[in-house]
């Protein structure tokens, strides 16, 4: 009878994290591994998979049986192709280069430029597809172009692209189910990430989620988790993240980065900084090899000082780039969000002042904030005082109305 070991035992045997062993199993890189519920049984004599980067191999997407059977996996609807591609960290550009020349490859390259903080290139590359007759290409272009233009201060162009998403959703009532699913996916992402009300006509997630391929389904679940976070349903949001990552989500680096980041938001709100730190480092492990740092800048204000606590000391150059992305993105984000919602999110604080004020608004003491951000309580007190002065308020409890919600 063949002997099996657990994920934990394999991780100890090979000197890697349990999460990494899960990745090996889900990617089919451990011969004989068997799925048991949400875990895996691994042959006791299995060897640690080699690193494809050292072997000089090109990464490949690993289609599961469910992927092969789904009717939505057709070349006729190339929606966010890079987001929907499984690749090994460090091989993002190789994966794009291996794609067949054409519109799908161009959109994938624009995705890479956006998620690596190159908003100008992403906007330039997606503009020709804003009126493309192919719904997948057009929706992909609108989403990337809209968010890229937030970062370069072109708010009118951003609003145009995002309004096109709503128009496609509204006009697609009689469209094929996969087209309605694509429209709903992009419309939900565009609204939730801007903290805006969900658009009219958006179907329940249960109607369109099953029609999405695995990578987009993982990102849609991130959007759902983010939505629950905004409703202060932190434990439910974290549960969605953990379940998605335990299944297929970890195989798709871009959705996985965003899933880990919303988990950081949840666990910081639940006052569980150690769990938040674990997820931040997991996101960083996925992002850093390919420079996919945009999401860290986008989420800075919601991460509760975790970037300052973890990334700033160990990776100071990367931290500076993330903060530059934060300033650019948040300025454009507020110019869309604030007028639409009437919520006056603070726009005149430094990122460190904002992080300290965010934690203070959540009820953290100066001592707790200082220990978390590796600064003294007196320094925290100074940051909070400056924030109060800049916002024109007198009391700490009034900070919440100016923080992200």
| Mean of pLDDT | 84
Encode the helix/strand succession as letters. Answer: EHHEEHHHHHHHHHHHHHHHHHHH
- Which consecutive residue ranges, at least 5 long each, have pLDDT under 50? 51-74
Strand order across the largest sheet: 1-3-2
Silhouette: globular
What structural class is derived from the secondary structure elements? Answer: mainly alpha
Number of helices: 21
Whole-angstrom Rg: 21 Å
Fraction of residues in helix: 55-70%
Spatial separation of the terminal alpha carbons: 55 Å
Largest sheet data: 3 strands, antiparallel
Topology, number of strands? 3
Beta-strand content estimate: under 5%
Give an account of the 3D structure:
With 405 residues, the chain is mostly helical. The longest helix has 26 residues. It is 60% helix and 2% strand. Strand 2 and strand 3 form a beta hairpin. The N and C termini lie far apart (55 Å). Among the domains are: 46 residues; 59 residues, no CATH class; 59 residues, Winged helix-like DNA-binding domain superfamily/Winged helix DNA-binding domain (Arc Repressor Mutant, subunit A, Orthogonal Bundle). It contains 21 helices and three strands.
